[in-house]
Amino acid sequence: MKFPLSWLKDHLATTASLDEILAAMLKAGLEVEHVENPAERLAAFTVCKVTDAQPHPDADKLRVCTVDTVDGTKQIVCGAPNARKGMTAIYAPLGAYIPGLDFSLDKKPRKIRGVESSGMMCSTKELEAGDDHDGIADLDEALKLGTPAAEALGLDDPVIDFEVTPNRPDWLGVQGIARDLAAAGAGGFIDEPVKKVSGSFDCPVEISLEAPDACPVFAGALVKDVTNGPSPDWLQARLRAVGLAPKSLLIDITNYISLDRARPLHVYDADKLRGKIIARLGRTAETLDALDGKTYEITPDMCVIADASGAIGLGGVMGGTSTAVSAETRNVFIESAWFDPLRTARTGRTTGITSDARYRFERGVDPSSCADGINQALRLVLDYGGGTASKIKIAGEAPERTDRVVFTKSDVTRLTGLDIKTAAMKKTLKSLGFGIEDTGESIFLTVPGWRFDMAYSADIVEEIARLEGYDTLPTTSLPAPESGKRAVTTPIQDRVRTARRTLASRGFQEAVTWSFMPHADAKLFGGGDPALTIANPVASELNQMRPSILANLAAAAQKGFNKGERDMRLFEAGPVYRGDGPKDQRTVIAALVRPVAARHWQGNTAAYDPYHAKADLFAVLTALGQPPTRFQIDAPRQAHWHPGQSACLKLGPKVTIAHFGALHPRVLKALDVDGPVYGFELNLNALPLMRAKTTKTKPVLQKIDLSPIHRDFAFVVSDNIAANAITIAAHGADKKLITRVDVFDVYQGQGIEPGQKSVAIEVTMQPIGDALTDKDIEAVSDKIVAAVVKATGGSLRR
Amino acid sequence: MSETTTIESEALAAIEAATDLSALDTVRVAELGKKGRVSGLMKTLGQMSAEERQDMGPKLNALKTRVAAAVEARKTVLEDAALEADLANDVLDMTLPPRREPTGTLHPVMQVFEEIAAIFGDMGFTVAEGPDIEDDWHNFTALNFPEGHPARETHDTFFFHPQQGDKPKVLRTHTSPVQIRTMMSQKPPIRIIAPGRVYRNDWDATHTPMFHQVEGLVIEKNIHMGHLKGCLIDFVKAFFEVDSVEARFRPHFFPFTEPSAEMDVKYTKVGESIEIGEGDAWMEILGSGMVHPNVLRNCGIDPDDYQGFAFGMGVDRLAMLKYGMPDLRPYFEADAKWSRHYGFKPWLTPSVSGGLS
Asked: How close A104 comes to chain B (CA, Å)?
């Protein structure tokens, strides 16, 4: 909302400076966004008097002027054809920035064709203050030397732009702004009632209200024999100052009253009305050719203004072209009605119409302002457009505001810590227009018609606190919490932190990517649920909630590679979505590598491969206190993984906690990513929770003096036997004694039948208590061999 | 006498003269070996009379010990020399590069989340979370956004397609629904912060369709707006790691707080970057207020028993202000160069005791 300071002063008696007004706005909660102050921009320029003007000796078109200025008498060479002796003009001193020319004058006098010139005389165009082409500004002689140019040009009126919060529709009128600023101490509110205009004949237009919920009150009046020419200069200037183009007297008057009192009106060319005016609900198959040049389909939910010809407007939103006023309009019918905010908002949303009327009605217009609005309009129409006014006809009744707020005085201290005397509270509330009935502990308050945000005692507390000034609030640090010893973060958050640091320390860069992705890509990763498709995406390729982070990381890695990055290693910890319920979101950590083998003088480093991905995953699990060996490894259960070079980690038959390995080449191709690409995705929610320990004390260290014993075995097995079938079987031979089983060789080739492989393992045994004899070791070895042979169908390699 | 003296001086000279281990060994055999000269002298003891033996025994034994010690000493010297000679031939070019290890980084937003948690954790807050996909009730209605009210439209909400006549689900437009979820599931006293992703349908130079907020909520018996002010000033000082911050609170409107306030802090522009705390201009950094009685009631808390404050702030912007990132958009592009420049070292863990950054 924009308003010029001079307009505010129609409603606020004040001597406050602009800065004081701005401070009062800040205090009252009117957040200033911008102040356009021409006086500031034109501060360097002042009124000067030309005492002499002689032709330039060497140039026909130039004059050498002697000028009395604030800086003394100056010689100024001027090229304007209208420069003359005795002229009152605008002086720009040396060094001044000329906004219209976008340059600054030299700081020292310069010679123009050999004659020294100190400064400049300006046109209004050069000051961006007008449009004159005839030469320099030729001002009223009465202006005194040194008068600021802004004042001389009538441009000393700052325009303030501020944010109107949705709870304060009364700030959409300058009068409402003045009321708050007066309450904030910036002046006195000029509370002059609107004078009634007495009509000389009965309004001939019948008004019928068929939908009282939608339009409970409708005031109308007719003015005969109007001239709808241009509006007066002062009105045009005010509209221009707030960025509205003047149109015609009748239109400008409605816009003016809307801005002055937040009271929307509408004007009809009475000669184009057919029969009576009806406010009713829409009918199916009805349409309206609206004033914005578009045709709208009307629904039965909308409030329609109609006459015998059908819909002629959408109540509170926009009028129609069929009854629009024009330069030829002689008889005008003025509407001042009240429309239900919610219905107006719905109509606005359905049609997409944004208008000043809708903006005000959906936020709330004072229902009791119908008569004032029409009286104010009639006065202006009669004053500037002539004609004869009818009596005002009011159909229906303004919905009565019966809401009263019970304000508990002690709530001010309870909620704000402020200590404010009752008299001061009452003064503030009175200045805001509340009706007050003090009962001691509480005050019963009648809410003024222009306020829609007052229901509870806390609402009143805000009014009192803000007008007292939030700077007077105490500053109190929080007391120590009532309950102590709670962990700050949840176990899942701790997992995220640890996992992120583990991967970053292993060379991965952390990414944060969109939670949404293209629907087609989401399908490749097992997503695409219609419940997770965004109906109004910001871009069509960001319309599906992601089922996995890997697609985003793969695209980012490819983008990095295209920009010349060698080895992209990315990870992200964040949400993926299985459904739209509150429990369907998972926190996962995904890592992805688009590898490039690095050359090195000691021999090239092995490129990242699926086993590196497994190592990174296992490192994360280990850091999270989840021994990787507790999980089972199985074939991948998601289609975006390479069928032969990936796997999942399971906890029992049902819970999958992670996938790792190579991504499916077909998926990469669809994403336009060059493979191979490796990675993992770990569901941090699926990991089992560590049992909460009752004590922080660790168990006593069991001292074992005996050295571990290592024995190697090689087995020949069919090459479709998984390596962990051997290690699990070996481990199972004596779970107490055997602490580790490591594969150290896998061999196929000479000496091994085709279709077979040799897998060599090292078994570590840790004797506890008694040392192992050779016989003991032999017995365990036999058990190991028997177990592996039984599990794999293979044989010990001899 | 003279023979023993001669043998000793000759032996010691020969030992000293040995230039390598094999020469030394030859001397050792010649003197101390079974047939060596010193061994020969020792054998003469057997033929001596008892008195002679008593005299000569200790002398010869001492002689043998001295020669043996000299051999050992020389051996150490020669071994050292041999090792040095070997090592002189076993030289690596230590200027050659080791294998390159990729450098990992942490994202500034995630780091700043942790900084914020550290500060509020120290004030007794715990970290709460809620889902990104919310229903209309949690995102709006419970937070006192009236149905159909224009306040809802200021949020540029992302909607899902409505299912079976229900109101469409939304992507949460703020972290405030976590206030509701927290108050619905736990009893006061409550002190939580809720960091997370939020979404609005807006994409230009200063807006992204996804961004990050931290919500804060304190519900106790006697918490008033002075605490809100004190708590948030304490936070801003700790976050920007400055001794003092000039802050002001302005009235504003949020449906879910009453009274409501926005907080501005003073700042100075220094070159391209910004210093928070003092200066000649104000910058808005967060919205806050006393929790609206309707919100408390919607969550089953009696506003006559409990009261408190809530606040919400944009984390991306806080990170930009603190760490001087000029542009929001690269946050979400996973750009390697940006990460190397603005990312954090893997083991930097923010804490109040150890410093945030």
From this structure: 24
